[in-house]
């Protein structure tokens, strides 16, 4: 996994270097070949990680919880690989286009920001203090619900113990 992350980082650095070359007018053909090869290598390594993870989970070499954690890591790598592929195919968009696409969710050639989420109706137009107050209210409601659940479980425990005592007495 770490080696695959390192490959992804190197690809990102090479794409950035290629984009600098394109702005300065230098040739970036060599870098394009290296990046394309590295992207293929990254894709193969991610596929290997997926296969190894599937095998480890199916043979119970790792717990399901650990399998889920590792699956999330592999999914993050897949997302990173797709972003790198899109960045490579953009052939070095101008930095202003990239910056503006981060805030607007739009971008060049149909690439959208996967992290952009629509704001919900209940939070739209609220200020920082209002949001904090709403979060506190929600947490208080959850705490009240947990307290009620705790008392119900305590009562069930007490009833179970009384039933157990009655059974012992009857026996």
List the helices and strands and how they pair.
Blueprint: H1 2-24, H2 29-58, H3 64-89, H4 95-104, H5 128-170
Helix pairs in contact: 1-2, 1-3, 2-3
Q: Which secondary-structure class do the elements indicate?
A: mainly alpha
Order of SSEs? HHHHH
CATH class: Mainly Alpha
**Which consecutive residue ranges, at least 5 long each, have pLDDT under 50?**
92-97, 106-111
CATH topology group: Methane Monooxygenase Hydroxylase, Chain G, domain 1
Number of individual domains: 1
Distance between the termini: 60 Å
Quantity of strands, as a count = 0
InterPro entries: T_SNARE_dom
Organism: Bucco capensis
Domain T-SNARE coiled-coil homology: 136-171
Coiled coil: 32-59
Describe the structure.
By secondary structure, the protein is mainly alpha-helical. It has one domain: Methane Monooxygenase Hydroxylase, Chain G, domain 1, CATH 1.20.58. It has five helices and no strands. α1 packs antiparallel against α2, α1 packs parallel to α3 and α2 runs antiparallel to α3. The longest helix is centred in the last third of the chain and has 43 residues. The chain is elongated, with a radius of gyration of 27 Å. About 7% of the residues have low confidence.
Quick gist of this model?
Residues 32-59 form a coiled coil. The protein has 171 residues and is mainly α.
């Amino acid at each position: 996994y770490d080696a695959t992350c390192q490959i992804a980082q190197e690809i990102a650095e090479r794409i950035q270097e290629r984009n600098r070359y394109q702005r300065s007018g230098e040739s970036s053909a060599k870098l394009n070949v290296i990046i394309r090869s590295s992207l293929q290598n990254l894709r193969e390594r991610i596929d290997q990680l997926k296969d190894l993870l599937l095998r480890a989970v199916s043979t119970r070499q790792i717990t399901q919880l650990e399998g889920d954690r590792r699956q999330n890591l592999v999914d993050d790598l897949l997302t990173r690989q797709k972003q790198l592929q899109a960045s490579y195919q953009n052939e070095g968009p101008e930095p202003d286009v990239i910056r503006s696409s981060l805030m607007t969710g739009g971008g060049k050639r149909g690439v959208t920001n996967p992290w952009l989420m629509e704001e919900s109706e209940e939070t739209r137009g609220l200020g920082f203090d209002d949001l904090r107050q709403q979060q506190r209210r929600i947490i208080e409601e959850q705490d009240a619900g947990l307290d009620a659940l705790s008392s119900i479980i305590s009562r069930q425990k007490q009833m179970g113990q009384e039933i157990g005592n009655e059974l012992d007495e009857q026996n």
